[in-house]
Amino acid sequence: MSDLRETAMQSKAWPFEEARRIFTRYRKVPPEKGYVLFQTGYGPSGLPHIGTFGEVARTTMVRRAFEVICDIPTRLLCFSDDMDGLRQVPGNVPMQEALAQDLHLPLTRVRDPFGTHESFARHNNAKLREFLDSFGFEYEFASATEYYTAGRFNGMLLMALERFDKIMDIMLPTLGKQRQATYSPFLPISPKTGRVLQVPTLERNIREGTIVYEEPDGEKIKIPVTDGHVKMQWKPDWAMRWAALGTDYEMSGKDLIESVAQATRICRILGRPPPIGLTYELFNDKEGRKISKSRGNGIAMEDWLKYAGPESLQFYMFQKPKTARRLHFDVIPRTVDEYHRHLRGYAGQDAVQRLTNPVFHIHGRKVPDSDMVVSFSMLLNLAGAANAETAAQMWGFIRKYAPEASPQTHPGLDAAAGAAVRYFHDFVKPAKVYRPPTDQERDALEDLARALRDPALARMMIAQKNAAMGQDAEVPELDYTDDEVLQSVVFAVGKNHGFEPLRTWFAAIYEVLLGETQGPRFGGFIALYGVDKTIELIGAGLAGRLGQVVPRQAVGPAEAAV
Description:
Elements: H1 3-10, H2 14-25, E1 36-42, H3 50-69, E2 74-80, H4 96-100, H5 120-134, E3 140-143, H6 144-149, H7 154-162, H8 164-171, H9 177-182, E4 186-188, E5 203-205, E6 210-214, E7 220-224, E8 230-232, H10 234-245, E9 252-253, H11 257-269, E10 279-280, E11 283-284, H12 301-307, H13 310-318, E12 325-326, H14 332-346, H15 351-356, H16 358-363, H17 376-386, H18 391-401, H19 411-431, H20 439-453, H21 455-468, H22 483-496, H23 503-514, H24 522-529, H25 531-542, H26 552-555
Parallel strand pairs: 1-2, 2-3, 9-10, 11-12
Antiparallel strand pairs: 4-8, 5-6, 6-7
């Protein structure tokens, strides 16, 4: 076993923990099918969403970890349940009345309201593949309609027919009395109407492989359970798919715990071991409520990608899958910055640290370099201070701060600059509220402006601060292109003006000059925005010219802002 493999076998990163669970299944004997099958499921009754992305991203992370710890080949199957009947018309698509005429038809027979594909399912499946391809996921796409009609499930469907009663014994106790009266694991596809029928099975013939059911008009019809004449109810269908394909790993949300338990029992009844799986927690909205499609209180995938790159979304999915977390627009800036912090740290880490680093699980062994010489949070503050409308305006400041950078050499930074402008105008600017300074803060801000104009005066202020703190009063020449030097000037002004604790001084800067309760390391901001522009900003803030100004008590105490 290689050193990397030995390290991976000990790693506490959750994808490796999951991978070791799979490896335990085949430690002694490899799978008969010749590979380990990872699977994700998707219902194309609506457009692909962020939950679909999360399952594929996280499953890919486990697959990648498994490929580090052993040499057994792997496959990832993204399965579309496109033979399911259309149960309700989605509210976010055109042709509502026309689609209502297609209720209960298999999704591959429902008209495409967008007019681009032969069916609604084909449209959504194409969107799914386009979406997955844009992230570079390695996967195989599978259609339930194609698998059913091509006979790929025939053997397991006949097994389900043979063990019909045992499946019913599992499912009936989970249903209400009214549903029990009509329930069958098999849903006939009506040869009369083409609709998926929720009707009881009246007769079964195991030798023929057929069932008898009653049409809504009262006619009794015999059909085979093979070759796409029926579809199974979704929980038995899930189990049948596991058994037929030999699925080794599939994760699912906390809301499906009971469904997984039932499907697991049915899979065993069909004679196959169920897959190993991870139960992940669901995301909450800004107020901590469960995200609901009908409520529309979540964040769509395309919304995230409007403000940040796909890697940051994968990073967010990597973190604590078993912990409920908020998924809202306000998590984006910090997520972007945390992703790049891990990216910058990767090069200097040893093997153990690298396998724990989220960027390994996002990129595999081809971890890129970060070109974010300015953090996303700092870009947001720059966009606000400069009132920027485009990334090009942002680059006027970035080039002065980092002369070696350009949109061509730092494409990630360029994309982030544009995203920061959009995010600022959509979320930050509408919420900005400035407050007037107190007398103490006004004096300190005026002193800060004087110190930025006159480095010699700033040296005296630093020396005064050092003396008061019992430190060396000898201060070298100041370089105002250095973030740390500028931060020391800001720090000295706050100390000399008696701010205790010092965080109240920085909170005052944010609230008076930036209109926010939190802000960047201010020395870095000055270096990026420019000393002269910062002096102008201080003057505008003291004059109340930056934006909506409200009394200090309406903003909240500065002490609570940092």
